[in-house]
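Long-time lurker. I teach an intro course on protein structure, and each term I like to show students one example going from raw sequence to a predicted 3D structure in token notation. This year I'd like something fresh instead of my usual example. Would anyone be willing to generate the tokens for the chain below so I can use it in lecture? Attribution to the forum is fine with me.
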Amino acid sequence: MERYIDQHLAHLVDPDRFAFYKTLCQFADREIAPHVVAWERAHKLLPDAVIAKMAHLGLFGLTVSEEYGGQGGSITELVLAGLALGYYSQSVAITTGAASSLGTKPVQIAGTSAQKKAHLPDLAAGKRMFAFGLSEPGRGSDAGNPEVKAERVAEGWKITGEKCWSTNAHWASHVVVHALTNPQGANGQRTTCFIVPTQHSAVTVQEMGGKQVWPLSSTGSIRFDGVVVGEDAVLGEVNQGFRVMLNTLNGGRLLIAALALSSLARALDLCRNYAQERTQFSDKPIGRFQRVQDVILDMDIALHQGLAWLWHGLALYEAGTMPRELAAKIKIECTRRASDLLTLAMEICGGVACLDEFGLIQHHRDLFVCRVGEGSNFVLKTLATKPLMPNIELQ
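-- Reply from a regular --
Happy to contribute to a lecture. Here you go:
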């Protein structure tokens, strides 16, 4: 199926990057589209063979420097991959996307030379993945005050507690754990990040069952029963883990915005084709009705606007000048617009939209994750509002 989104992207992306994007679209057409419904119906994770093919394409090392075996690209390549793969399945796109934006990124921005040499080559090659241990059963939006604790011991640090909603946990060789190390410290100076092997005898990884979103993606609970790690496991500076976390999430929010737009792009194509083919009332296409036209046009407008704003954010991110609130605003607007419009798109198509093989219902579900993942939109609104009213304390 022709992707109408390409007409917008062609004006935003340079020819080399656009060619890269189109290569991934062809991969998705060939390797994902024919199988995704069967995979989802089987209630199993993304097949290892598909992960291996994506690794062969270099998708796990897009943002890793060539020095460590990566492609030497930037977050723009990561977003383009999200748009190309997410068109059929956000589950597929987030597997590689989270591996880079949440798993590999903390090592890139805060790792020592020894840590980078030890981990980045395998991560870039897709031989291993890292998970990001942030959310907890009792901590979601209040991620700056984790219940997972790390205490100094003779051998280094002892970590106790549980993380949940960790993407790629099933495949992860290590988890970057955000833990409380200085309970009396000032805000932003209470936590430290650690690289912890999931194969440690005191670590338990369990896939979270019953999930109806991102069905092919691994989402795990990771428990730490007094795991002892050495000083070489500290990622970044002690008591500066909050900074590592924030720097990691900023780029991840742009990726989530891209996933939302990929679902919107899929919905636009399905609806505009359906509206021209489906006949009712004197055997004429339903696309002649203005209410149908309004929804289809609104989807295209939201897609065009979202892409333009996203690319503005990407340019600032690559220049190192993107404010945190901008990433929040882009993520909020792209995810809520896509989510709202997907509901209307399903109304246009009627009952057939409820069938998985039609291609809308899983996108509709997955867009909920986009609204709450990488920071709930409700919480991010407070973050984005602070510069507007700096003289009062917002809650």
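Some talking points for your students: Residues 243-388 form a domain with the Butyryl-CoA Dehydrogenase, subunit A; domain 3 fold (CATH 1.20.140.10). The chain has three domains: 5-128, 131-239, 243-388.
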